[in-house]
Specification:
Length: about 170
């Protein structure tokens, strides 16, 4: 019986790669420890006070900076929405107001307020008035649903943002 086949070279390319990787990791670790120790041991009282002031100012000003950034972002979104609505109106005019429909858009209530309140002076349910109240009711329901969905999404975004801020402040990554 013969012995099992063994590689003729004492180390394969995989072994040399793993040993060089381990050596590099040890070097990186020692460099990191030496550099951080040196950096903190050279700090003077003036440097420590400066660092505390910078970190404290950031912690105090961060909420206000986030609100300011939120305002700018909201203005940008409103501007983009206005541009989108202008584009939709332009397409509608080009289409003749026919078959072009925008997802999530509810048509404006074209009925006057007097008709909505039922003070028209005409008898209800006659002639061309059939279905007006149902259309108005459906528009109100759809508007309410869209507003509720927007409110829910806004609350979810605020909650996730608050959770991320809390994680960053407590150090739980």
């Amino acid at each position: 019986m013969s012995a099992p086949d063994t590689p003729t070279s004492p180390s394969s390319p995989l072994d040399s790669l793993l040993t060089s990787l381990a050596t590099n990791l040890k070097t990186y670790k020692s460099n990191l420890l030496n550099q951080t120790h040196t950096a903190f041991s050279r700090l003077t009282a003036k440097d420590v006070i400066r660092l505390v002031i910078i970190v404290g100012a950031y912690a105090l000003l961060r909420p206000y900076l986030l609100k300011l950034g939120g305002k700018f972002q909201e203005q940008d979104h409103e501007r983009a929405d206005k541009m989108d609505m202008a584009e939709v109106e332009r397409l509608r005019r080009a289409d003749g107001g026919g078959s072009l429909k925008v997802a999530g858009e509810i048509p404006e209530d074209t009925d006057s307020e007097d008709e909505a309140e039922g003070r028209t002076g005409k008898a209800k349910g006659t002639g061309m008035d059939w279905g007006k109240t149902a259309r108005r009711r459906q528009r109100r329901v759809l508007r309410g649903l869209l507003e509720e969905e927007e409110r829910r999404r806004r609350e979810e975004e605020e909650a996730t943002s608050d959770k991320e801020i809390e994680d960053l402040l407590t150090g739980d990554y």
